[in-house]
From TrEMBL:
GO biological process terms on file: translation
Region named Disordered: 31-91, 162-185
Compositionally biased region (Acidic residues): 31-64
Name the record gives this protein: 30S ribosomal protein S15
Cross-referenced CDD domains: Ribosomal_S15p_S13e (cd00353)
Comp. bias regions, Basic residues: 171-185
A Gene Ontology term for the protein's cellular component: ribonucleoprotein complex
Pfam families tied to this protein: Ribosomal_S15 (PF00312)
Keyword field contains Ribosomal protein: yes
Entry-linked InterPro entries: Ribosomal_uS15 (IPR000589), Ribosomal_uS15_bac-type (IPR005290), uS15_NS1_RNA-bd_sf (IPR009068)
């Protein structure tokens, strides 16, 4: 349908004086004629630009997906492996699996950006939080602790047991007895 036909159809509903209508159609005809003649003014012709497919979006120039995307996929995979149930998001195994991947991603980031001190601070906090979760896990279930440490490749030193007062100070000599004048009466 041409623009002039649309103008004529719209004239049926909104009557416009004939002079205004003829001027508008002349302008529209000039614009349509000019666009057909001036195809060389554009840097690219239609069809020269490649359309992005769904498969290529998110891929960097080297053909590899971005590091954050790969890390996110690996984190989802690890979390689904260590999930206790379908709706589990808070179990220590689930959290440790996600934190381990985030720690590896942040470590790679800091190797490339050594002056990024705020990320370094966040990484240290994340490592400490994972350590506390692993300490909890070893107290609750040693078998799951051993499984998760071996499968994720985490270096973690299990906390030692807390010594009793006698064990801690038993190797030292007993304190001298309190002198009579210092005793409370």
């Amino acid at each position: 349908m041409q623009v002039s036909e649309i103008v004529k159809d719209s004239e049926r509903f909104n009557p416009v004086p004939q002079t205004v209508l003829s001027v508008a159609t002349d302008i529209l005809d000039d614009i349509e004629g000019a666009s057909e003649e001036e195809e060389d003014d554009y840097m690219f012709n239609e069809g020269e630009l490649e359309e992005e497919d769904d498969e290529t979006t998110g891929i960097e120039d080297d053909g590899e997906p971005p590091a954050w995307f790969t890390s996110q996929q690996r984190m989802d995979e690890l979390r689904s492996t260590w999930r206790r149930s379908e709706k589990d998001t808070g179990s220590p195994e689930f959290q440790v699996a996600g934190m381990t991947e985030r720690i590896s991603y942040l470590t790679k980031h800091l190797q490339q950006n050594p002056k990024d001190y705020s990320t370094r601070r966040g990484l240290v906090a994340l490592v400490n939080k994972r350590r506390r979760l692993l300490n909890y896990l070893i107290r609750e279930d040693e078998q799951k602790y051993a499984d998760i440490i071996s499968s994720l490749g985490i270096r973690h030193k299990a906390p030692g047991r807390v010594e009793s007062r006698e064990d801690k100070y038993g190797r030292f000599n007993k304190q001298k007895s309190v002198k009579k004048h210092l005793q409370k009466k």
